[in-house]
Structure formats: C-alpha cells, structure tokens
Design goal:
single chain; 253 residues; alpha+beta; Type Iii Antifreeze Protein Isoform Hplc 12; 2 domains; 9 strands
C-alpha cells in the first residue's frame, strides 16, 4: 500500500516537473518569436545605385532610405546608421530594394581609377573656387541643385560705358562634389559633406556643366563674381529679363 502511494506521489511530481518544463519552453519560444519579429531600422536601396556613388550623395538624391525590417530578416553586416557609409563609396552596382551591406561600401583609396563622379551625358565636371558666403554659407552638398548668379560689367545701351549687372548664368545645376579635396577623398569634407570652413576661407564646388556652357562658366569665374543659390527639389527656372543693374534695382534714381 505504501509503495503504491509512493509511486503515485512520484508520478504526480514528475508530471508537475514536466508541465513546468513545458511552460518554460513555450514561454521561451514565445520570447524568441517576439524577438525575431521586433523591427530594426535598416538602410536599403530605394533605386539602383551605380558603383562609385558616395553614401552622402545616395542619401541626398533619395537613392537610399531607412525602412523597418524584422530582426530575424536583417542581413549580417547591414548598414544601420548613415555615418557608417556617408564618406564611403559603393564598390559595386547595388540593386533596388537590397539591404545596404557595409562590406560593399569602401573608402576613396579603394576605388582609385573608378569614376567617383556621376556625370550626365553631354556634360562636364567643372570646379569653381568659392568662399563660404557665396556657396550659401556652406550648406551646398553633393547631390544638391544650385543656380549661378553672375555679377559682371557689360556694355551699356548704345555703347555708353560699362554697367555692372547681376544675372542668372545657369540654373538647376547638379552639384557633384564639395571641397578642395572632394575628388580624391570625400572624408576630407566635414560634417556630412559640408566643408568645414571659417569666414573668408574657400573651397571648390564641382558642378555638372553642359558642354556648350563650360567656356562661359570658366570666363565668368575668371572675370566676374559668382554667387550660388540652393534650390528645393523640382525647382523651376526663374525668368530673367536682362538681370539687375543699379538703374532697375533702385528704380532709376
């Protein structure tokens, strides 16, 4: 009788232990499942990215974006923060929708001989040296669109002497790089591709200029004074009727 009771007690204890173990396992599985579903913000390609494109340019032009991805689906080595690649370049072409992998983004020294500047057909890359104020206080960055306003003397009506005139030289121009050393190493630029300048310091701003306008821009840079204006996305060209002179700015007085 006692042995039967003891056997029953042992069976009850074993059943309780098994139940407890099952509960612990199930709870652990639930936690693991929830952990695997928790999203993480990952940078992905919003569109195809050409090899040689810098991370900063890819962000400024909307080629990459951050999206939430379940933790279990995040690829090993995925780019989780922009500083990881902003001063690096795509080593290969990247397909739209692909998670960005840090190993596919390399320093400028690793892409020597490759085309680091994405130049449009029938355009040429041209660098203009400008001080901080003339490049919108240093807020011009690669991937931006700018317009160039030229101040220069030109003959007055009827040849009556030279008049100082300010007028749009080019509008909606693509910025390819910013900084005196941008063509070799974008890491030399400070603060997210802004040039780390003080008052009066200068830096080269590299632009994509239509073939037929290259000579004019060079002449203007050598003989006139150029300001840049920073444009919003999808900006339209501003009509320009002869530009501004002392006569029409102050009403002829």
């Amino acid at each position: 009788m006692q042995s039967r009771v003891l056997a029953t007690l042992v069976a009850v204890v074993l059943a309780l232990v098994a139940t407890a173990a099952l509960v612990v396992y199930v709870n652990g599985a639930d936690r693991r499942a929830v952990s695997g579903q928790e999203p993480r913000m990952v940078w992905v390609a919003a569109e195809g990215i050409k090899a040689g494109t810098s991370g900063q340019t890819a962000r400024n032009t909307g080629q990459i974006k951050q999206v939430p991805v379940p933790n279990k689906n995040v690829v090993a080595g995925a780019v989780l923060s922009m500083p990881q690649i902003e001063n690096r370049y795509a080593a290969v072409d990247i397909v739209a929708g692909e998670q960005l992998l840090l190993r596919r983004w390399v320093g400028a020294e690793d892409v020597a001989g490759r085309r680091l500047l994405q130049i449009e057909p029938d355009h040429q890359a041209l660098a203009i040296e400008m001080d901080l104020v003339r490049q919108v206080a240093g807020f011009v960055t690669p991937g931006d669109k700018v317009s160039l306003v030229l101040s220069m003397k030109r003959p007055g009506p009827g040849g009556d002497g030279d008049l100082e005139r300010s007028q749009f030289l080019l509008q909606n121009v693509q910025v390819l790089a910013v900084g005196a050393t941008a063509l070799a190493n974008s890491a030399a630029q400070g603060g997210g591709s802004r040039v780390n300048q003080g008052r009066g310091e200068v830096a080269a701003v590299t632009l994509s200029i239509p073939d037929e306008r290259v000579e004019q821009v060079v002449y203007a840079a050598e003989n006139g004074s150029i300001y840049m204006t920073l444009l919003p996305p999808d900006a339209k060209d501003v009509p320009s009727d002869g530009g501004a002179t002392a006569g029409n700015v102050i009403g002829g007085r």
